[in-house]
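Known limitations

Structure tokens in this collection are predictions and should be treated as such. Users comparing against experimental data should check residue numbering before alignment. To illustrate the layout, the record for YraN family protein is reproduced below. The input appears on top and the generated tokens appear beneath it.
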Amino acid sequence: MNLRKVGAAAEHEAEAYLVRKGAEILDRNVRLGHGEIDLVANMGGVILFVEVKARSSDRFGTPAEAVHREKRRRI
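Generated tokens:
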């Protein structure tokens, strides 16, 4: 599976998880300037901005470690 398909599958899984937890998906792949937010959802009146990261192993770090300080600031 190529990286684009892996990313799309991970976004689909994240979306399905949020919906199972009661979130309403408001938008997907929102382009803002030079960046993108993978999912925007509403869960109980709280707006969620979701960055999806997928890894086949932790060899190069965990998905959480891939969302560095600058990425969190932009989100």
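For this record: DSSP finds three helices and three strands in the chain. The mean pLDDT is 87. Please report discrepancies through the issue tracker.
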